[in-house]
Structures are given as C-alpha cells and as structure tokens.
Design brief:
10 helices, mainly alpha, 237 residues, globular
C-alpha cells in the first residue's frame, strides 16, 4: 500500500527544525541556571510521567482500529522504544535508561529529524505530524539538556551497556520485518525518501548498509560521545 508523506525541507519541516533548535537553546540555558536546585528531582519525575502518559496515548492512537498498519505503525522503530526508555529514565533516574537516551537520542534519532520519512498512515494526519515531531524532538533535546545543561556525563560502563543491549532492538526489529513485511529500523531496505543510507548505497553497500552503519555508530559513540566526556568529566552525574 502506498501513502503520501511529508516532503523533506518543506516549510513545515523547516519550521519544526527551527523551533527545536530554539527550544533546545532555551532549555540548556535554563538548566544551567537552576542546576542543583532542590526541586529538580520532582520536576524531572513529573516530566517523565507526562511523557509516559503521552507515549501511552500515542500507542493507543497508532494501534486504534482504522489506524493500525502492521508494515508501518507497530512499535518497532528505535524511537518507539526510546520514548518509553526516556520517560522511565526521567521518572526513576535510572542511569542505564539515561545512557540509552543519550546514545540513541543524540546519534540515531536525528536521522528521523534531518531526513524524515513520515508516511501519513493515520488519521487525522495533523495528529500524526504532531506526534512524530514531538517525540523525535524530545528524544533529542532531553539528552542534550542532560549533558550541556545539567552536566550529566556518560561512563565507559554506560557505553558497554548500551552497546550490549542495542543488538537486542535490532534483532526484534528484524524479526518484525520478517513477520510483517515491514521495514522497521530500515533494516529491510532504504526508505523511499532521501537519507544517509543513500550514501552507503552509492559506495556499494546496497544490501548490507546496516553493517557499515553499525561500524560508524560504534566509532562515533566511542570517539565522540564517550571518550572526550569521560576524559574531562568533572560535572555531576
């Protein structure tokens, strides 16, 4: 079945990107000013519960009869998992959940922001548009604020944990693709809209591009997102 989808770098896409950048900047500055305040734990937990309720409502919306599309809308994309992990991390302060939020949210999630593939399989379409962008932006902004605003720092233990559990999501997404004929995680084939995967295709990695992606992700997680911050980590966890 074919669907219409949001055009990349359309006025609405640009507007969302600008809004996200501005919101991120404001929240980082605000976080630095209130760092260490005694009420931050409660604020973090309330934020987490709000996100958890919204994520649950979004799941009901996508699985509602008439909206359910097994090849496009089951919760097997990375951000589908990330929104619950993020909310759980904020509610509990669990370091493992926060680490997944950091590594997945800052590096993997932005592909859906910079080169989105948003097929309008749900009705009304504006609800799908709002939900897609809200959850993807939150999954990027929260870990940036954690690090740049509140001084959270990853450890090598965090890195090893996320590196160990990430193949679990890949396996589940791959199994879902086999059962449904979908393309969760874009492991079955590249999306129909332009993305970074097109670059891998051009250099000859047409069928196993995901292997090159995994290699590059491991390099960035190690050399950019872990080592520099652990080498000069002085901020609070």
């Amino acid at each position: 079945m074919s669907y219409t989808w949001m055009r990349q770098y359309s006025p609405e896409h640009i507007a969302v990107l600008v809004t996200g950048i501005v919101a991120c900047g404001i929240l980082v500055v605000a976080a630095r000013r209130v760092r260490g305040a005694p009420w931050l734990t409660v604020a973090r937990q309330v934020t987490g519960w709000v996100l958890m309720v919204l994520a649950g409502a979004w799941l009901v919306f996508t699985l509602w009869p008439g909206n359910l599309h097994v090849t496009e809308a089951l919760p097997f994309h990375l951000c589908d998992w990330l929104r619950y992990i993020l909310a759980y991390g904020l509610i509990t302060g669990d370091e493992r959940a926060l680490a997944i939020t950091y590594y997945w949210g800052i590096l993997l999630n932005p592909q859906a922001i910079i080169t989105p593939y948003l097929p309008y399989v749900h009705h009304p379409a504006w609800v799908q548009f709002a939900g897609y962008w809200f959850f993807h932006m939150v999954a990027l902004i929260v870990p940036i604020v954690m690090v740049a605003g509140f001084g959270w720092r990853p450890t090598w233990r965090d890195f090893r944990f996320v590196a160990a559990v990430s193949p679990g999501w890949m396996a589940v997404a791959g199994l879902a693709n086999r059962i449904t004929g979908g393309n969760y995680g874009f492991f079955a084939h590249k999306p129909p809209t332009p993305s970074i995967i097109d670059i891998f295709h051009r250099v000859g990695w047409k069928r196993t591009y995901w292997i090159l992606e995994v290699i590059l992700i491991a390099i960035v997680w190690t050399g950019v997102m872990t080592w520099p911050l652990t080498a000069r980590s002085t901020g609070p966890r």
